[in-house]
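For reproducibility, we list the full input for the zinc ion complex.
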Amino acid sequence: MSLEKADAIVIRQVDFSESSRVITFFSREFGKFGALAKGAKRLKGPFEAGLDLLSECRVVFIRKTHGTLNLLTESRLMARFQPQQQGISDGLNRLYAGYYLAELLNGLTEDFDPAPELYELTTATLKSLSTPDCQTSSVIIHFEISLLQQIGLLPNLFECAVCGCPVEQNARFVHWVSQGGLLCQSCRREEYAGSTVSTGAIEILRRMTESSAELAGRIRLTGSQAEECHKLAVSAITGALGRRPQTLRYLQFTP
Ligand SMILES: [Zn+2]
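The corresponding predicted structure, in tokenized form, follows.
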């Protein structure tokens, strides 16, 4: 048992009793962890507004051992996720984009496995989703691709997974989902499940991996480019999660 401090984003809330909740955080210092927040459901509870979904807070908690619940003792709000402010026309859709981020972090990271870069990516993405002139679909694709890259599941975007030939303009490639790679035309087999991806989309995805969330938000994509990039990312994410993300059905994916 030890007292710990962390900068953390609320990614899940589950009711525990009449007045308490179990909160799942994604933190800079510890990665994902859950903690019991006693009194969190009371209007004038000890944490007040510091535990809204996707809020960034500075928290103090008692870390328990042997599988018992960690106990939250303090939470101070640092930044609230505000995609529905004035000047943002698709605010509701951006809110769903935030829920999608939270679902991916919850499903694709392990408890107490620190990933500070992923934390930075998440706070930067939430900030971009609250910035009026950022393009929502570009910000989402950037997060998907960067997350896959950081957890080591991004397909190699430079060469064929079988023969190693480079991905070049005007060649036809297929995303081979089960092996997490791209296949050139001559290595493609009927029995490999996959869908064709254009070299244009692969080029965009490469650019995304080299951009910050803020810069990526300024990349203007056509509807078909966005759809193609998002489809490849979702195939890889679905493979990693073992199911299609549930929040995707609420997300309107238009540029
Ligand atoms: Zn090949």
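DSSP finds six helices and eight strands in the chain. The pocket of zinc ion is lined by residues 160, 162-163, 165, 183-184, 186-187 (CB under 6 Å). Both points were considered when choosing residues for closer inspection.
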